[in-house]
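pinned: reference chain
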Amino acid sequence: MRVQAKICGISTPAAVAAALGGGSAWLGFVLFPKSPRNVSPELAASLGAPVPGSVGKVAVLVDPDDDLVGRAVSAGMTVLQLHGHETAERVAALRQRHGLEIWKAVPVRTRADLGHAAQYRGVADRILYDAKTPDGAALPGGMGLRFDWRLLTGFDHPLPWGLSGGLDADSVAEAVDITGAGLIDVSSGVESAPGVKDVDKIAAFLQATGRL
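pinned: its structure tokens
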């Protein structure tokens, strides 16, 4: 099984070049003002201009209104990743309206949290299991937290899925070994500071993923 990687929270041309050079399958652009990785749809469009059609461009959105979703689509994003409290009905409506692939993040702290993925069967294209952030946290992800990956052992996934949260070049092999994930999503694990991508860490992460 070849493990695919998504470098998320990209905000500079250098990070785009590093992700593409290392063979990332997806590039993620965060369109959420509270995030240190936030970019405007217009900047996302500019950063995504050199990305070939074989590489996905993911708009990471948190309970977005219709205007922001429309701007993300107009910016050339090919995937909508919903990281808020979007209901199955909202996900279905966005998928029908825009015709794009949709990923739904499911925050995980306990085995019971995995059950929330089932409500998106038939309306989302992929589930992204991410570590649940502390109550009251300003961000729903991207905080370098990881959950107990053993919770995924034997779980009957309702949809294709990926793994996020607390990953870096040193932990990705362990994560895949425990969970069997075919998609690995990294953000803070390839940064030198919150929102500041490190091209050497991106390269190291993608090299580690490429060996899996």
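why pinned: Residues 106 and 116 are 7 Å apart (CA to CA). The chain has a mean pLDDT of 93.
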